[in-house]
Design a protein that fits this description.
Radius of gyration: 18 Å
Shape: globular
Largest sheet: 10 strands, antiparallel
Number of domains: 1
Oligomer: single chain
Order of helices and strands: EHEEEEEHEEHEEEE
Distance between the termini: 33 Å
Structural class: mainly beta
Strand content: 35-45%
Length: 178
């Protein structure tokens, strides 16, 4: 059972089902999860040379989001992964190469990627409960000025990196509405 906090103006909430069902942005792929209330996505970041960069973002199971005046934030974790360029010889050689220390993950497309680096624990998935609030990168930057990056996952749905998270919860002083 997860613990949640309540402040005078805050209420707790879960990620609305509409975000679990909505069409995601181009380059964002939903991963089926064991928990029907969790959002797990793979974000295609771009190419570095001939290597495709990926970012896996997963909301923390059982967590409750902070809701403050219609802007919600749910703790999440992430990891970066790489996918070398495909080709006949690379496919053949990869079958004979020894496994490295990197964790191998399977994308929703069925292809494999190798984890690089450590897990990120300073992420939040952010959304606006009401479609009359239009979230964009500038709005998110005004809410979390300490954040490093915001990536659009879908309509009014973002992942924000660099948000202070205390006890598995987004820091309440960083969740403010303008």
């Amino acid at each position: 059972m997860s613990t949640s906090i309540r402040l005078s103006q805050d209420v707790t909430t879960e990620l609305p089902q509409r975000f679990l069902l909505q069409k995601l942005s181009a380059g964002v792929f939903r991963e089926p999860g064991l928990d029907s209330d969790s959002l797990i996505v793979w974000v295609r970041l771009g190419l570095t040379g001939s290597t495709q960069q990926w970012w896996r973002v997963s909301t923390n199971p059982g967590s409750k989001a902070i809701d403050r005046r219609g802007i919600h934030a749910l703790p999440a974790t992430g990891l970066h992964a790489v996918q070398p360029a495909r080709g006949f010889w690379r496919t053949i050689l990869s079958r004979f190469m020894s496994a490295q220390d990197n964790q191998t993950w399977i994308l929703p497309t069925g292809e494999t990627v190798k984890q690089c680096g450590e897990r990120e624990t300073d992420l939040v998935v952010v959304w606006a409960q009401d479609d009359s609030i239009c979230l964009d990168a500038a709005h998110i930057r005004s809410q979390w000025p300490e954040s490093r990056h915001a990536e659009k996952l879908g309509h009014n749905l973002f992942v924000v990196a660099g948000v202070k998270v205390a006890n598995g919860r987004p820091a309440t002083d960083s969740i403010t509405a303008t």
